[in-house]
Amino acid sequence: MAQTTPNHTQSVVGWAAHDPSGKITPYIFKRRENGVNDVTIKILYCGICHTDIHHIKNDWGITMYPVVPGHEITGIITKVGSNVKNFKVGDRAAVGCLAAACMECEFCKDSQENYCDKIQFTYNGIFWDGSITYGGYSEMLVADYRFVVHVPENIAMDAAAPLLCAGITVFCPMKDNNLIDSPAKKRIGIVGLGGLGHVAVKFGKAFGHHVTVISTSPSKEKEAKELLGADEFILSTNAMQMQAGKRTLDFILDTVSAKHSLGPILELLKVNGTLSVVGAPEAPFELPSFPLIFGKLLTLINLFPVTYMWFVKIKEMHVYE
Questions:
Q1: Closest CA to 145 of 40, 63, 239
Q2: pTM of the predicted protein model
């Protein structure tokens, strides 16, 4: 493992964290030359994801300093390698969380590279050449074209950036639970109204469902209903509201990244309901068994496949107004 290799000849200006203090400062580092399978992207926008904050502060104990965060990247392609397909100079492009996979295992062959044992990420990962990967808080990026997607002309580049992580994180469990093209209107709950939650509310409404926001912050009710279009709001610290919402929801998407108990949330599900967790708290979840048993509930919290659902490679970027 090394920060660079002899092929890393391009000096790049970016922003990096050098310790867990939470501060990022200007940083000059090296990127590799554009290879036969690579595209070079001039970065125009990069979203700030909560994952970036976790890595900056080393909340998960896996950060390799210095770390250049950023995996919600949009920009313009300036160079393409000889093996690159479906991209050309001048294309609007985007890069999410993935930088590399083995491309040979059963998951890679089934377009599920996010489950590959050798998966590496856009930053704080180890690339094929042994170098540490650096993310989108920088002026340019060299990326394997197989982990790059097109940005449609009908969406602004700055608006597209959050879809590369927040968007796919909440879209994927909705798709996996047949909420995208469902002929029946479902009652879905969104726990937390942060970066993931607000996108989930908009998706839920765009897909035609009845959306309830569950939050600990009473001040977010106006935003949830008036700005994002949520149908209902439950203050999770209010026992009466939680009791009134008991067994009313078909599906709940939990986006909260702070430690919390899943027990009260499970009580809101109908019998045979589903809870999908996409937040990544630093501490383990509190998961009581009785709500699962008596509600015949499916709880999708297995760590890598679901909690890290944002590592799914985007095959096609859909835009929902």
A1: 40
A2: 0.83
